[in-house]
Amino acid sequence: MPQAPRTELNPAYSDESAVAVEWAQAEALLVEAELFWISTVRPDGRPHVTPLPAVWRDGKLYFCTGAQERKALNLAANPQLVLTTGTNTWNKGFDVVVEGAAVRVTDDARLRTLAAAWECKYGSFWHFDVNDGCFEHGAGKALVFEVAPRTAFGFGKGEPFSQTRWTFGD
Which residue range or ranges hold the Pyridoxamine 5'-phosphate oxidase N-terminal domain (predicted)? Predict the structure, then answer.
């Protein structure tokens, strides 16, 4: 079980009545979220952002992508990324931003567990077979990555506005 993160409210970006949000609330949002936005950096330094589905499991976020997709190519050069989810509104909801490094998952037994989690969350359209350290779907293969949060931010929108920071590890 991952260690609980250090939790801090940033008073500069929070209403006076705001309190730090517990990590369990953010984690519940990560479990339920259907869509995430992944931000990576191209080899020439330009940003790249795209939506994708992801699964939260055992304290980590998991996503998949084709080996020749821009995000996979970016991660091969620089594994640092940001995954974001929340609501597309200003005055209500809660957004979570997770910073970390992508690590490729290649163990077939672990991938089978993750494939089952994908299908459970997203339905049979997202059924994956596992072969040779990859997800397979029809004629395509996908690399699977895990991201252990290094730092995460939560943005409470509406009354009260808040910004919580969670720091993992040292």
Answer: 25-148
Tell me which residue has tokens 């609501």. Answer: 87
Cβ partners under 8 Å of residue 120, min gap 6 = none
21: in domain: no
pLDDT tens-digit map of 27-74: 999 999 999 999 999 999 999 999 999 999 999 999 999 999 999 999
The torsion angle over the Cα atoms of residues 116, 132, 52 and 33, rounded to 10 degrees, is: 20
What the block records as the tokens of 52 is 């994708």
For residue 72, what are the domain limits? 34-88+97-155
pLDDT greater than 90 at residue 139: no
Q: CA 108 to CA 152: how far, in whole Å? A: 29
Distance between CA 100 and CA 149 in Å, rounded?
A: 5
Residues in a beta bridge with 143:
65
What's the whole-model pTM score?
A: 0.95
Q: Which of 21, 84, 59, 54 lies closest to 148 in space, CA to CA?
A: 59
What is the greatest pairwise CA distance in the chain? 54
| DSSP for residue 92 | S
In a domain? residue 161: no
